[in-house]
Amino acid sequence: MKHGRNKAVLVEMENDRKALNREDDDQQEEEKMEKFFALIRSFGEARDRRRRELNEMEMTKSKKTRKLESGQSTWVPSFKWEDFTEDVEFIRRAPLIFPAPCNKKEDKKDEEDNEGDLDLKLTL
C-alpha cells in the first residue's frame, strides 16, 4: 500500500504542478494582453496628441496670415462736405488732330495738278 500511496501523492503533485503551470500560463497571457492594450492606448494617445499639435499649428498660421492681412492698410475713400461745395472747372483743350476738310472741288483741282506726279497711294 505504501507504494500505491506514493504513487497517488506523485500524481497529486504532478496535477498541482500542472495547475500551477496553467495558472502561470494564464498569468503570462494576461500580462501579454495588458501590454498589447497598453501599446494600443499609447498609439491612440500619440495620434491624438499629434492631431492636436497640427491643429494648433494650423490655427497659429491662420492667425498670422490674418494679422498680416489686417495689418496692411488699404485706402478707403472718404468724402467731406468741402469736396462738394467747390466749383469745378473743366479745362477744354484744343484737339490735336484736326478733321480733314470736305471740299471736293479743291480735291479735284489737286488731282488735276498732280497728274504728272507718281501715284503714292496704297490700295488693297
From TrEMBL:
Give me any GO biological process, just one.
regulation of systemic acquired resistance
Q: Where is this region: Disordered?
A: 1-31, 101-124
Q: Which cell locations does it reside in?
A: Nucleus
Give UniProt keywords alphabetically: Nucleus
* Source species, domain of life: Eukaryota
GO CC annotations, alphabetized: nucleus
Task: Name the Pfam families for this protein.
Answer: NPR1_interact (PF15699)
Q: Which InterPro entries match?
A: NPR1/NH1-interacting
* Similarity-based family: Belongs to the NPR1-interactor family.
**What is the protein named?**
Protein NIM1-INTERACTING 1
